[in-house]
Design a protein that fits this description.
By secondary structure, the chain is mainly alpha-helical. The protein folds into 2 domains: 33 residues, no CATH class; 41 residues. It contains 2 helices and no strands. The longest helix is centred in the C-terminal third of the chain and has 43 residues. The chain starts with a helix and ends with a helix.
Length: 82
């Protein structure tokens, strides 16, 4: 779904830039976003894998920060009861 929105936005931008350049653009003009070579395909796969790994890393860091914050709160509460 987000890929379709990106493709539509890029097509809209492509048409807009073409109109600014005074070149006639037909309505059926499409922007090809498919990989041009096997290298591009491999690069896309690696980038998607990297994105998922970064997402997992962000989730772990957020969990670690929550654990540290909880430990700080527990220490403050324990110091109040001493």
């Amino acid at each position: 779904m987000p890929d379709d929105k990106l493709k539509d936005a890029l097509q809209w931008l492509f048409r807009r830039q073409a109109k600014k350049a005074q070149s006639p653009v037909q309505e059926h003009t499409t922007l090809d976003l498919s990989p041009r070579s096997p290298f591009d395909l491999l690069l896309d796969r690696r980038l998607k894998a990297l994105e998922s790994q970064v997402g997992e890393l962000k989730a772990r860091v957020n969990g670690l920060m929550a654990a540290v914050a909880a430990a700080v709160v527990v220490q403050i509460v324990l110091s109040l009861f001493k």
